[in-house]
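Following up on my earlier message about adenosine-5'-triphosphate. Here are the inputs again, as you asked, copied directly from the submission form:
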Amino acid sequence: MAKAFSGIQPTGEITLGNYIGALRNWQPDPGSFYCVVDMHSLSQPWEPAELRENIRSTAALLLALGLGEGSHVFVQSHVPEHAELAWILNCLGRMGELSRMTQFKSKGRGKVDVSVGLFTYPLLMASDILLYRVEEVPVGEDQKQHVELTRDMAERFNSRFGPVFTVPAPRIAKLGARVMSLRNPLEKMSKSDPDPNSKILLSDGEDAISKKIMTAVTDSGREVAYDPKEKPGVSNLLEIASILSGESVAALAERYRDQGYGAFKRGVAEIVVAAVRPLREKVEGLLEDPAEIDRQLEQGRAAAEREAKPMLGQVKRAIGLV
Ligand code: ATP
Ligand code: LTN
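Thanks, got it. Here's what our run produced:
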């Protein structure tokens, strides 16, 4: 199995979009690292108490998925090499290439009070990845451009200073790489969306899930068909249901074609409830054992340090700091 690195921000409760687009594709492999990227979440305004709580619940979720056993789970700020390499890459990255990042454009758009961190954030992400010599970065579609920037940075560094970094590639699933908001199927489902009805949380119970799916924005007409352009709302629900049930989009569309949106949504809600319940129960169980969370995070930190320290040493020697 290829070595992988991926990260998730502790900016709120984890959504079904995070699970389908990213977490589901994180494999517990001994060479792989999965990170709660807490320093990334400082790039947008935050509340200290909320951040502390979110770091813990996000870590608990990754551990509940079993990623702390087969692979390594850790918190970014526990390994200071990330910030140190980020400064070096800040001095090698270019204003022009960062200005082209669509996430910066969309999150900073129209805001007067944008942090410098939001602009340079992709270079912190590049540091996360490059410290671990990984080949693959399993992410949702929205992160593809950042992984490509990471590749460019690695290639530029290697050609100037010698072969230090492994050049990683994004791994993006064909289906479910961009789960859409339930309120606006033209926008991605996002954990920091203030509208609770736009997103399904992995902590949602049966009633909340059913209500959100039954009130999801669907399209005009009544035929259930997969057509992301003409029927983005229905197509989003079909993709979600297909991934979580293992049944093909075509088979689901065929079954519900003439049954109307109500019956279709009830079917989707049932599938989502059945998929989310075991995850929620595992996280709840683990949150009752904070010592176990700390133990696994400390193990992850130590494993991360064993890779990150020598890698940063190699970088410093290559660029002339040592
Ligand atoms: P925020 O709202 O704070 O930007 P987010 O919900 O976009 O958060 P991140 O922590 O930025 O989540 O992303 C974690 C992982 O989840 C990334 O790999 C990202 O590509 C993936 N992801 C996020 N939203 C979706 C989505 N709607 N569909 C598929 N994948 C997603
Ligand atoms: N930028 C990503 C989170 C992230 C990440 C990473 C993903 C930070 N560092 C390294 C993969 C690899 C996001 O906002 N989803």
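One observation from looking it over: The pocket of L-tryptophanamide (ligand 2) is lined by residues 5-7, 9, 37, 40, 125, 128-129, 137, 139, 143, 146 (CB under 6 Å). Hope that helps, and feel free to reply on this thread.
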